[in-house]
Amino acid sequence: MIELKPITKEGIPRALEKIERYRLLNEPAEAESICRDIIGIEPGHQKALIMLILTLSDQFSKGVTEREASSLLPKLKDEYQRAYYKGIILERLAKAALNRSTHGSQFDAYEWLWEAMESFEQAATIRPPGNDDSVLRWNACVRTIERYRLSPRGKEHAEPPLE
Known about the structure:
Layout: H1 12-24, H2 28-41, H3 46-58, H4 66-72, H5 79-100, H6 105-125, H7 133-147
């Protein structure tokens, strides 16, 4: 295997700017790579961890699973951020399910949106003054449920039990 080259600590601010630029260009894999370079030299770097959560969740509709993104949540030092980004992960899982349009995906989307709303509600109770991000995301989840006319999985749509 080819060995990766480490970046310098002095290069972190510029690397963070590049992450944001690649995300804006809809190139989350490039942004993810840079996040990993920062975390490689500074494992607890909070902004890089948050950006890695976001870049991974940007790729849910491309087959990236939520497992790694969720595993990063305990590394966030702030309780508000843990709750908020858990909601982001769940909301993006729901949107990826809606994009898949497979049998039952609308029910999965509803359940994930509902869980996301619970996380955003938790975050809203501990949010910093003037930070309404969790309320904005909660409202966006409600609007997605209404726009797609999502509803809970009824008994007729329940998965059959495994034998």
